[in-house]
Amino acid sequence: MLPRVVYQMAVHGALIVGSQAKKLCGEDVDAQDYDVLVPLEKWQTVALLIPRSARPNKFGGWRFKTDFKGAMVEVDVWPDSLDKYLSQCKTKYGGKVYAVDFINNRAFSSQCIDIDAALERANRSKKRDRKKPQHRSARSGPST
Q1: What is the CATH number of the domain that holds 34?
Q2: Considering the domain boundaries, does residue 125 fall inside one?
Q3: Are 33 and 75 in contact (CB under 8 A)?
Q4: Which of 31, 64, 83, 108 could cysteine-pair with 99, CB 3.0–4.6 Å?
Q5: Residue range 82-94: average pLDDT?
Q6: 8 A C-beta contact, residue 100 and residue 107
Q7: What is the largest CA-CA distance in the chain?
Q8: Do residues 77 and 38 make contact, with C-beta atoms less than 8 angstroms apart?
Q9: Does the pTM exceed 0.85?
Q10: Is 42 domain-assigned?
């Protein structure tokens, strides 16, 4: 499912990002290349897998081509923090940004929940529930 070198990078802690991550998360996108984000603490190990033919890319990492199922595919690999990537990445496809930990079968997303807003909505709901009049049944009055 992944080119050999991308899989090897994933084994050592790299994350699949970009269009391939969207595809792995079930979105219908045309994924032609592989983008690989390497957490800073894993870079020293993963960098050893980058071929000598690689050239610098615009992300501060490397770009190279590798064989996958008889065709050459492009791979971009760079060091970065997952938090920074998810919070600042812009995607040409729009929508959520994903990072996939292929080995541990986990996906991270840029979608977040505003905890303060969620708590405020819950508190408003509780106040509305308290204000609703309590209906008594015909039998709930004092007994004689």
Answers
A1: 3.30.460.10
A2: no
A3: yes
A4: 108
A5: 76
A6: yes
A7: 95
A8: yes
A9: no
A10: yes
